[in-house]
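Protein modeling request. Please complete all fields; requests missing the sequence field cannot be processed.
Requester role: graduate student
Desired output: 3D structure, token encoding
Chains: 1
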Amino acid sequence: MNIKIKTTGISLTPAISEYADKRLIKISKIIGGDPSFICDLELAKTTNHHKNGDIFRAEMHIVGKGKDLYASAEDADLYAAIDAMRDEIIRELHASKGKRLSFIRKGGAQVKSMMKGMWPFSKKDAEL
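Delivered output (128 residues):
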């Protein structure tokens, strides 16, 4: 997974970069470490004149192999915003996996019901 980090209103320190990379390891494990995925991470300070409240924002956009996921979070602490955003992306990844499996199962059930209708003999006809 290719990760691009962009900052707005704050400077990207090695500590912030290392923390973000450490938090994104779980996402890359779920994806499977596929290099075709592109992850755009934006870390921002939404306002300069406020001292408290949700002033830090973390946004992530993942694109690749039929997936287009987006999550954002605002919090009073930058690290807490990164954690909340990561949890949201992981929830979306698991939800998309569940949807894909349910479509596969539904399609299999439809094929099975079609096959039952195509069978020329039923059990009653075999007994006669």
